[in-house]
Structure formats: structure tokens, C-alpha cells
Amino acid sequence: MSDYAHRPGGALKFKGEGEKKKKKKSHSSSERAKVDSTIAQKEKERDVAQSGSASASGSGSAQPSGPKLTDAERKYQEVQAKRREERAKRNALLSHKDRVTDFNNKLDRLTEHHDMPKIGPG
Question: The whole model's pTM is what?
């Protein structure tokens, strides 16, 4: 048996520490049941509201149900969606190996301004 075999566990104890910690009160199960039922009821109401608004829109377009979009905002969102689709198509054609080599080439092209020069003797 080595010197390191015995390891006492637990927190360190300070001399003269006579205070005992107060125990937390446990909540009764009836209070928890009330809270759980109110949470479940709120979730049901939210689900009903979401399903009602989704069926009311009909077309299911990506337009927000809030304020009306201006022409510029609508066009901006269309361009962003088109760019996301193009990026997804481009990435779908590349294998993981191709993506890694592209990433490494990109890192090679970057300037290494984050590298610290050697300072001091050594």
C-alpha cells in the first residue's frame, strides 16, 4: 500500500466554525402540481394560438406576421434566401476532404499578424 492510497474526502474544515447551515424548506407536492398544471395550460394555449395563426395564413410563406414589409425589406429577404440556397448547393457538392483542403488553403493565404515575435533572450 502506497502513501497515496488514503485520500480523505469532503470539504476543508476551519477551526472554530460552529455555525450550521440552515436547511432549505422543501415545497409540498401540491404546490408543484399547481405550478406544473399552470405551465401545461400556458403551453396548450400557445400551441393553439400558433396553430390558429398558421392555418389562417394559408400559404405558409416565410413572411413575418408582424408589420408589413417594405419593398426593399422584402427584396432583401428574397436575395438572402437565394444566397443561402446557392451556398447550400455549393457545399453539397464538396466532400469533407475538399472542404478541409479549401479551409487549409484559405488559412495559408491569411496574414499571420496574430503570431507574436520572440521577445527577450531565448
Answer: 0.31
| Number of CB atoms found within 10 A of residue 69's CB | 13
- pLDDT per position as a tens digit, 3-37: 777 777 777 777 876 677 778 877 677 877 888 88
Which cell numbers hold the place of 23? 436547511
Phi, psi of 89 (to 5 degrees): -65, -45
Question: Cα(first)–Cα(last) distance of the chain, in Å?
Answer: 45
Q: Mention every residue, 6+ apart, whose C-beta is less than 8 A from residue 74.
A: 63
Residue type, 29: S
List C-alpha distances in Å: 109 to 94, 96, 100, 101, 112: 20, 20, 14, 12, 9
